[in-house]
Structure formats: structure tokens, C-alpha cells
Amino acid sequence: MSNFCDFQIHINGLQTFFVNEEILSTYSWRLKKIIKQERRRAQIKYPGIEIDDFPGGPDGFELISRFCYSNGRITITVSNVSLLHCCAVFLGMTEKVSTNNLLKQTETFLEGLFDWSWKEILVCLKSCESFLNYADSSGLVDKLICAVIAKIAQNSDIGSLIVTSSSSSSSPETTSGFRVSSSFRNTPESLKPSSSSKAWWFDDVSILPPKIIEKLIQSLGAYGSENNSLILTRFLLHYLKVSAQRKKSNTSHTSSEFGGLADTATHGVILVGKKVFSCRALFWVLRIVSGFGISKEYRLGLERLIGGMLDEATLDDLLVSGHDRGVYDVNLVIRLIRVFAKSEGVSVQKLRKAGRLIDKYLGEISPDQNLKISKFLGVAESLPDSARDCFDGAYRAIDIYLESHPTLSFEERSRLCRCLNYEKLSLEACKELAKNPKIPPRVAIQALISQQSKVTATEEFVHASPCSTASASNHFNSHSHSSSYSQMVLYNNGGAGADKDSFPEESSLDTKLNLQRMQWRVVELEKLCREMKGQMSKMVKNNVLSSSTPTHGRALPRLC
């Protein structure tokens, strides 16, 4: 038995085979040459050799050993033909060494490639993954890819697969605590093919590794910036989605291997833009490709496309998972807002719609303990002041932030409130702000002064109105306590049913009712002013705002 196992061959540093060198040399000229060189170099009978980068590793060499020990016979199938072919090329198992050698047998088997079934072709192509470089250099991968393309063309009309998308209207999902967007979990309808039969090959081809998919796309002349095919763009997005799900349990492929495919898909999306993809679909694309090392150029292009449609987004779309310990990707939203704000032809209606969305977003991200004040302000101040007709939403978000970050200093709380336009706060919000212990007193005073400025403007309007009465004139020309009481009597007599929350529209209510409601607002504001004055007096007495305190050394503005 020792005569048949007198030689050691170490394969890829993983496994050692004890073989008979004469039997293997009968079918492989390369093994014969390597053994001869090793003996000559050592000048003695060398007990073994090492072969690195053997196709398929120990599994490949085991198949070759079986072929040699079986007198040149082995069962060839679609599962092993690729490996046998590459090993035969690597070892030089040609007809010059032995008749009907392994290389000829595999080539004969591959001649019927185009008669194989769809599944057999994919199984054969998939088997090339572990020795792809050898399969590619031998031309085997190109042959198999041609067979795949031929099968697709044979069983479908590729031109009919290019369909126009429709906007998805799926509602956002919420869970307890922070919300997780549903866009990443579910493919939007605008990305799904119009019928399952037209994309019958998507799932099947998705089993292939990224390098083979890359070769497939290159063979079709649609790789990178050359991609102008919607059907291939849809396939790549589907492939990347499946691969992202597979990455959680299988780490055999790194994200960088998918980078070229992600860029190709993104180029195709940017090319057709909003003509085919809805805003929700574009956010879904961004989530998918961001996990695969997309290049900066294509990321910016995709963000410009999304930013121009930001008014069509929903809160669920903006809740993209964050980095740098943050729950959400706030930097992304800031970039999108800036793109939208700089877009040409943005109407006031679209701007205010985006403003309402951003206020909702601020309220959603405020509880994040890792959210810095600079990021909060970056979101709040990215839109111009005209994007908000009311700043109540921004104030609510600030209140939530202060509640979730109780350790903020006086200066930090003051800085946080700088994004508010006090003149655009409703009276109810202003009252809440003034009574909020988390809001710095100086900010509360500024808000009240701004509200008083609104009242002054209202006075001028009432004086100019021909319907103003003598009592109204007396009221707006005086700020004394006695006039306040007379105003209260007037309100009680004529405005018992008045709405205290908002001004009615001039076109829909009587001028007299308007006047009475404005009078009530003035009364409430003056009452608030007196309360604040009292609080400030107490604080001054207690030396809280004395000139000796460094952080509060500036003079206070006059209240009334």
C-alpha cells in the first residue's frame, strides 16, 4: 500500500494528500514538471510539494485524484464541471499528456451548454464562486453568462419590462419608543414590476455572487455610467435588497464588493428621476444603496433628486437610521432641506408644506439623547423663516428636547430657542412658553414683547377701521389697569362665545366680533405681562439677575 502513497502534496496550506506521483503525472504535465523541479532542487528524493491557489482548494484536488485513480474516468455533472474544467486547465491535463484527458471531457460536456435548463445554468455559474478568477481567465464565466442572457431573451420580452412607476401611498408605521421607517423593509409599489411574469428571473439570478453579477451587467454594456436600462436598474435594486438581507446572516461578501453595482443602480435611478420614481421610492433606494459603499458623486446626485421633491416626503421617509451613535441620520435631512431651499421655482405652498414636515421631524428626533443642539438647530434653521406661518410646532419640539435633556445649561437653553420667531407664535404657545420653567426668563420676556408688538399693530388696524367704536378707541389708547377692567366688561358683554384660540378669517365673521376677540387678547397679554413683571421683581430682589452675576449681566428690556 505504501507504494501508492509515497508522495505528499500540500494544497493551499489546508490539507495534505498522500498520493502516487506516477499515477498523477500520467494525466498532468504540470504536476510532472513540478515534481521534477523539486527533486532537482533538493538533489534527493523529495517527499512532497506545496501547491498554492489550487482551484477549489482541497475539494478540487480530491476530484482530480479520483479521476486519476479511476483510470481517467469520473462522473461529470453541472455541479462539478466548472471545477473539473478549471483544475484540468490549471494542471495541464491535455491530450498531449493522455488521450481523452479531463480537459477534453469537460469541454465536450460544456458543448451542450445552451441546451441546459435555466436552473442547470445558474447552478453551474454559482459553483464558480470559490474559484472565480480561474473560471474567468479560462473563458468559462463568459460562456455561462451568455447562456443566462440567451435564456432570459428566449423566455421574455425585455422591452416590455420597462414600465412607468406610480407613487406609493403606504402609510408609515410606528412602534413604541423611536419610530423605525417601514420603507426599508418593504419595496415600494413604484419599484415592483407590473407583473410577476415579467421579472421571473430576478429572484433566480439573485443567488449569484456580486462579481458574477458585475460581469453580467458588463456583458450587457450597462455598467456604471453606461447604464440606461430601467429593467436592469430595477433588477440591481432588487439584488441589492436581497443581498442586504442576506448580509445579516452571511458575511462572506464585503460591502465594497457591491459598490460598483450600487453606483450602477443609482446612475439608472438618477437618469429617469421623478418621471419613474416617487419620493418614497427614492428614499427606499437611498436606504438600500447606502449600505454598500456608494460613491460620493452618486450619493450627492441622489440626494439632489430627493431634495428637490422634499415637499412630497412623509415623516416616515425622513426617519433614516443614523450613524455616529445617533438614532436617526440628521445630517442627511439637513442636506436634503438645504437642497430643497435652494431649488428654483419652489412655491410658498410647497415651502410651508415642507416646514410643517420638518417641525414634525424635529418633534420625532428631539428625545434622542445623542442629538446635539447644533444638529437640532441645523434642521430647524435650514428652511427660511417664510416656510413657517406659525412656529408652534418648533416650540413643541424645543419643549420635548428640553424635557429629554434636563442637564442643559442656561446658555444652551437660550441658544436652542434662537430658532423661534416669537412674532409667529400663537397666544396659547406664547403663554405656555412664558410659564415654562425650562425656558430661560430672558427668552420668555422677548416672546412677550414680540406678542405686544403684534398687539400694537392690531391697535393701528382698529384705529384705522371705520367700524371701530369709541370704547375700542379708548381701549387701544390706554394701558392702565382701569382700562383693562373696562375691556374685560366689554368682552363679557359681547364676546362670551368667542374662540380664544385663533383669529377668525375677516371674510367669514363680523367685524364687531373680530374687535371683541382682539380686545380679549390684549387683556390676556397685559395680565401675562403683569405676572411676568412680578416674577422678575422677585428675582431681582433675590439677586438672581443682579449685576454681580456674570452670565446675566446685561440690562433687561423694559416690559411695558
User: What's the pLDDT, averaged over the residues?
Assistant: 79
Task: Give the ordered list of helices and strands.
Answer: EEHHEHHHHHHHHHHHHHHHHHHHHHHH
Radius of gyration: 38 Å
Q: Helix count?
A: 25
Query: How helix-rich are the residues, as a percent range?
Result: 40-55%
Count of extended strands: 3
Structural class: mainly alpha
> Which residues form runs of ≥5 with pLDDT under 50?
159-198, 461-509, 543-560
Described by the principal axes of the CA atoms, the overall outline is elongated
Explain what this protein looks like in three dimensions:
By secondary structure, the chain is mainly alpha-helical. 54% of the residues lie in helices and 2% in strands. A 3-stranded mixed beta sheet has the order 2-1-3. Strand 1 and strand 2 form a beta hairpin. Helix 13 runs antiparallel to helix 14 and helix 22 runs antiparallel to helix 25. The radius of gyration is 38 Å and the shape is elongated. The C terminus is likely disordered.
